Amino acid sequence: MQKSLSFLGVSLLLACLAAAGCASQAEREDSQAQPRELIFVAGASGRVGRYVIRRLKDEGRPFRSLTTSKASAIERWGDSYRKMNWVEGDVRDAARTQKIMAGATTVICVIGARETSGPNGPEFVDYGGVVNLVEAAKAAQVEHFVLLTAIGVTDPGHPFNKATRGALQWRYKGEEHLRNSGLNYTIVRPAGLVNRPAGEQGLIIDQGDNWQPLLRSTLSREDLALVLIESLANAGARNATFEIANDPTRGPGDWRLLLDGLEPDQP
Fold first, then answer.
1. What angle do CA 89, 95, 101 make, to 5 degrees?
2. Which of 27, 152, 181, 236 gets the highest tally of CB atoms within 10 A of its CB?
3. pLDDT per residue as tens digits for the range 115-144
4. Which CATH homologous superfamily contains domain 38-260?
5. How many CB atoms lie within 10 A of CB 17?
6. Distance CA 120, CA 112 (A)
């Protein structure tokens, strides 16, 4: 009788261990089938990036914030930005960029050159930096890449292009590199950016870089952050390029329907 009970106890123990092993295997397989979201935000400490990461944090979504200096970012935007999952790096450094993007599932790129020429100019940041980010995203096998550029990038006659001897051409070259990368993408070209709370005005969305009607238009950076985040998952925004500006004649929430109606870029 004692031997039978002992045998029964061992059998139950083995059954429990087997069940636990199966459960652990199932959890591993489920984890592999559904990778955890991790949004990589390049340019996170900039004037648009700060709104992006603040919104992501408010929504409780996992993200990684790229900046050249965490200390400078906190000094610039305040102590509430201390815990923003910062990682330091320079998008002009291809090896470093690839290393710190590892594990990301999507990318929001809001970088921008601070100077009009030289190593901190558009050629090395708006183009070279985007190339490095795109190549790092390919290595990380990200699902979607959202890139912020500007209206007028296709037109050498745009006033900013004239004033800077073609600085916008480098943004367009960055766009083209992303389009030809094989990644799923969205390219967003905003009107003049201003600090205005989101939702005060509606949005107008256009395609084709018809920038002249938008030249004197503005766009809330906080509204822009919402659009950039929405573009990660909105099917209408996939592989599409569009221009965007605030429009006081439209309702604040109508822009999501406009995203649904976008035309994808033609090869």
1. 60
2. 152
3. 989 999 999 999 999 999 999 999 999 999
4. NAD(P)-binding Rossmann-like Domain (3.40.50.720)
5. 10
6. 9
